[in-house]
Amino acid sequence: MSDGADRRLHPGTIALRLVKEAPQMLALPAALAFSSRTGLSGALYLAAALALVLLAAKWLAWRQFRYGVGPAEIVIESGILSRNRRSIPFDRVQDVDIERTFLARLFGLAKVRIETGAGGKDEGLLDSVSLAEAHRLRETVRAGRAGAAAAAVGSEAPAPRILFAMEPPRLILFGLFNFSLVYIAGLFALLQTFDRFLPFDIYDPARWVGLVDEYLPARWTFGAIAAVLFVAALLGTLAGVLRTLSRDYGFRLSLEGERFRRERGLFTRSEAVISRRRVQLAEVGSGPVRGLFGWSGLSFQTLGAGTERGGPQSAAPFATRLEIETVLAEVPPLRLPPPPELIPVSRRHIARSVAARLVPALAAILALSWWLPLAVALVALLPLLAVAAALERRFHRYSLDRDMLFVSRGVWRRRLWLVPLANIQALSLSRGLLQRRLGLATLSIDTAGASLINAPRIVDLRTEAAEGLAAEISRVLRYRPSPSSVPAQDGRSEPPSTAHPE
Amino acid sequence: MDDLPLTPLDRGLLRLMQIRGLIAGGFILAAALAGEVWIQRLAAVPRGLLVAAALLILLYLAVLAPPRRYRAWGYGMDGEELRVRRGVWTRVHTVVPLDRVQHIDVSQGPLERMLGICSLVLHTAGTLHSQIVVPGLARGTAESLRDEIRGRIREEPA
């Protein structure tokens, strides 16, 4: 298992790590010296012993860590008891980062991070090697994927083209949909913090009732309640509009060569660059009311989850279908689903979600009726579970169209995922106990940069339908029209019209 | 999705599962023995109740569960994709297109080394299945699988 991995980290690493951990290491003996009667000398002995143990551990870790550069890959072997050998092909390396902290600079060392765009964090971390070795590694990897390096830098920079922009009237309309009472709660929290500086007590009910009294002839009449609700609604709406204005004022999405540039913000003007090649899939979000008026928002999921560049990037927060299509046209094969409606999932989805929620709901009611016997009446509300489940199924749909998979889910927050098959990293079909009884299966589609909760997952398909769909997707992935159009690093098929200049 | 015949894993994995079950069950048994002494002082609980329960758990973990779990595992690879099947209660069948693999690990813990098996770990750029693990492969099998996948990655144009 030692072929190829012929190098070790710089021995200075041991010293560097010891220095880095010294404060924690000294904490225990120091605490002991203060709290017990062992005194200073005992603490010193303990510190020395700890240092020795730590030194031995660091030395062992250093001895067991080996790396090497093969003809087409980097090999890293690590682990004291559990040995792990990792191969990172040059073709998969996105970038070689060299990081030098102040401490590392004192030791003449550098931390090398080999980024591959995989979901994990430390894909290939060499902590630490000498600076010269770090540069050598970077050069070797770059030379190893010379072709990719040439394509990575776009030489021409065409004039930016604005794809989507929002004017103030649109922003205000958008703000109306962002109604939120959270900010009122926030205001109260703020008031509470500065409580003692206020000339009155915010928790004095008499004061608030008095306030109402001043303006309204009778307390708690229908009119008074309506007025309070009206004021709350007004404040909530105002808060929504103000927040939207401050965040999205002057929203502009433009395309400059290979990258989108998004500018927005009233007070803090933020600018984000979204590389077109890093876009993995698109998500169209809407709600029951804004959907009725034909408004929805578009965001892109980009490579590199967890990093600042990754995760969903809003591309057009409040747009018409036509505007969304305009933006999507720049990132083929992304597109909205073609007219024939998406297919709903199995009808048994309703049965399963009712069954899955009935037990906790019943348990909650039982527990509540222990204190409050009247709570038993809540059982009458249980049929609502079925209504909710039926609604959920109505909005949970999917369809496969040539090279794209469309999945929609959600009643209040409606999401529609547009997934290019070429960007699917792995497929997984799972069947739980209840699902097997009902002949159902869940198809999970894994993509780069996906969030764990809001992934394009198709829950409760009939087993045969799920298997058919999985087989179809895997068939498309096998026989892609031309494998050369798939860049290895991004896993995203490149539009033929924007092929790299050779 | 079941058109590809899946290969069972090395028998060593079954041994590994049994040993792990034995260790976990042993801990539970030890805790139950300690609990038994403690509980007898507090209340008149039938003697040996806790220990009997722990023994049942041990029996399940070390004898009953491993063969079922072992049989649930299977993998298959053709030139284009790797398929892994696992799970007794919830059955999961995962498909990874080989050209999505970012890097590959072959790992071996101390127990695995004793039994002469190791695990193959495929890392993809995804988040949900950023690691696909095939445990319990004979050393030679794991290494030849790794070399085959690595070959696939290399011929991929950059």
Short descriptors:
heterodimer; A: 502 residues; alpha+beta; PH-domain like; seven-stranded antiparallel β-sheet; four-stranded antiparallel β-sheet; 21 strands; B: 158 residues; 2 domains; three-stranded antiparallel β-sheet; 4 helices
User: What is the mean pLDDT of chain B?
Assistant: 87
How many separate domains of chain B? 2
CATH superfamily of the largest domain in chain B: Pleckstrin-homology domain (PH domain)/Phosphotyrosine-binding domain (PTB)
Quaternary structure of the protein: heterodimer
Number of strands of chain B: 6
Shape verdict of chain B: elongated
Task: Give the strand tally of chain A.
Answer: 21
What percentage of amino acids of chain A are in beta strands? 15-25%
The secondary structure category of chain A is alpha+beta
Task: Give helix and strand order of chain B, one letter per element, not per position.
Answer: HHEEEEHEEH
CATH class of the largest domain in chain B: Mainly Beta
Q: What separation lies between the terminal Cα atoms of chain B? A: 30 Å
Approximate helicity band of chain A:
40-55%
Characterize the structure shown.
The complex is a heterodimer of chains A (502) and B (158). With 502 residues, chain A is α+β, with helices and mostly antiparallel strands. Chain A has helices at residues 12-35, 39-64, 102-107, 131-144, 146-152, 168-177, 182-193, 205-215, 222-248, 288-292, 321-328, 348-371, 383-395, 433-438, 463-478; strands at 7-8, 66-69, 73-78, 83-89, 95-99, 109-115, 125-130, 161-165, 252-256, 259-264, 270-275, 279-286, 296-302, 311-319, 343-344, 397-401, 404-409, 414-420, 424-431, 440-447, 457-462. A seven-stranded antiparallel sheet of chain A has the order 14-13-12-18-17-16-15. In chain A, strands 1-2-3-4 form a four-stranded antiparallel sheet. In chain A, strand 10 and strand 11 (270-275) form a beta hairpin. Chain B is α+β, with helices and mostly antiparallel strands. Chain B has two domains: 11-70; 73-155, PH-domain like. In chain B, strand 1 and strand 2 form a beta hairpin. The radius of gyration of chain B is 20 Å and the shape is elongated.
